[in-house]
Specification:
This protein is α/β, with parallel strands linked by helices. It has 15 helices and 11 strands. Among the domains are: 42 residues, no CATH class; 72 residues, no CATH class. 37% of the residues lie in helices and 17% in strands. The protein is globular, with a radius of gyration of 22 Å. Pathway: Protein modification; protein sumoylation.
Length: 406
């Protein structure tokens, strides 16, 4: 992220706590100065992150157009981090208006904005973060948008705090347009981030191992497709490895099993966080037309509990790992926003988007959960398993059912 807390010409510390050698820093700045696409002002503003992930990655970031749907507390954090990183534009899409509930954890709106469109109210504050970033506003419900051209106008599509049908509709549009898609939500102390990047290539740098690197699959979703050896600045052998990840759309993830290797290990199954069951239960609750969130009426609570037991069994998890106390806690947190949780997950999602744009580092594959009570953030790869074709590379069709925004 762009760091405005220190002078732009301050050298960053290396991983071992030492400063990079002056010659290397000078060469980096000289190379950047020769780039026609980056101005001197931008070099100064984004100095630290350019040194961190390189000029090529920064160029991809500075040319990125982001669609952010539903501007609540989670989205506030995502927008803040992406705008400070120096993207080209961000489009805030929300057809809802600001209410008193929005004032608890959001920082782009105030009491004076109550009754105004949520995206329009947030836009001026977003612009103040980085005047170089263009901020656009859409005040209509984009979850019913099915035009491929609409989705192709963006490099990444992010939706937060929507219901399951709205998420899957946007995911379908992103798939058809071949665009990365993220979905995320927070409920009090709990939350999650989902990623469907279609087919995504990324690079990692690592120390050269005695074991030779080969162009072979690493997992059911990840394959090494290229590698190059080179020397680091201190003369050590390193290699640049290019990997390809395959992803699954949310509609299929909701019914996909855990990794087969995990299913065969009772110890691993006992460690699966019960939040996975609860999140998938909420998706089914919404998908089946029961409403956005269950009320505190006994019938709703009983229905949700019954669905949760079914989903837990579907995942082949031990019955005693889903307790009544955890179910009660999850249900009590539904629909609320807590700033530390939205800040953490918003930062995580934005960082993953930056990595994806820069084609660096391993992205989320494909569902990250967060339990603020335990400060736990497990990641689960959920995919339909078919012989000889573990990940279906086909777009999904937008559901025709009416979609709603929370």
């Amino acid at each position: 992220m762009a760091d405005t807390s220190a002078p732009a010409n301050t050298l960053p510390e290396a991983a071992n706590g030492t400063l990079p050698v002056p010659d290397a820093a000078a060469e980096t700045v000289a190379a950047i100065a020769q780039a026609e696409t980056v101005s001197a002002d931008e070099i100064a503003l984004y100095d630290r992150q350019i040194r961190l992930w390189g000029l090529e990655a920064q160029n991809r970031i500075r040319n990125a157009n982001i669609l952010l749907v539903s501007i609540k507390a989670f989205a506030n954090e995502v927008a803040k981090n992406l705008v400070l990183a120096g993207i080209s534009s961000i489009t805030l899409a929300d057809h809802e208006v600001v209410t008193e509930d929005d004032l608890g954890a959001q920082f782009f709106v105030s009491e004076a904005d109550i009754g105004k469109n949520r995206a329009e109210a947030a836009a001026p504050e977003v612009r103040k973060l980085n005047p170089r970033v263009q901020v656009n506003v859409i005040t209509t419900n984009v979850t019913s948008e099915q035009s491929e051209a609409f989705y192709k106008a963006f490099d990444v599509i992010i939706a937060t705090n929507l219901d399951f049908l709205s998420f899957t509709a946007l995911n379908a549009g992103a798939r058809i347009a071949n665009r990365p898609f993220y979905a995320g939500a927070t409920h009090g102390m709990y939350g999650y981030i989902f990623a469907d990047l279609g087919t995504h290539d990324f690079n990692i740098e690592r120390a050269k191992s005695n074991r030779p690197t080969t162009k072979t699959p690493e997992t059911a979703t990840r394959t090494v497709i290229d590698f190059t050896d080179k020397l680091s600045s201190d003369g050590k052998k390193i290699e640049l490895v290019t990997k390809r990840e395959l992803y699954t759309p949310l509609l299929l993830v909701n019914t996909s099993p855990l990794d087969p290797t995990m299913q065969k290990d009772p110890r691993k199954l006992r460690k699966v966080h019960p939040l996975l069951t609860c999140v998938r239960t909420l998706w089914d609750y919404q998908r089946n037309g029961n409403g956005i969130l269950p009320s505190h009426a006994p019938a709703d609570l009983q229905l949700f509990t019954t669905l949760a037991m079914q989903k837990h069994k579907e995942l082949k998890l031990p019955p005693n790992t889903l307790t009544g106390d955890f179910l009660k806690s999850f249900l009590a947190n539904l629909g609320s926003e807590i700033a530390p949780v939205t800040a953490y997950l918003g930062g995580q999602l934005a960082q993953d988007v930056i990595n994806v744009l820069g084609k660096r580092e391993q992205p989320i594959q494909n569902l990250m959960l967060f339990d603020g009570e335990e400060c736990a953030g497990p990641v689960y790869a959920l995919h339909p398993i078919f012989p000889d074709n573990p990940i279906p590379a086909v777009p999904i069709v937008p559901p025709e059912a009416q979609v709603l925004v929370v």
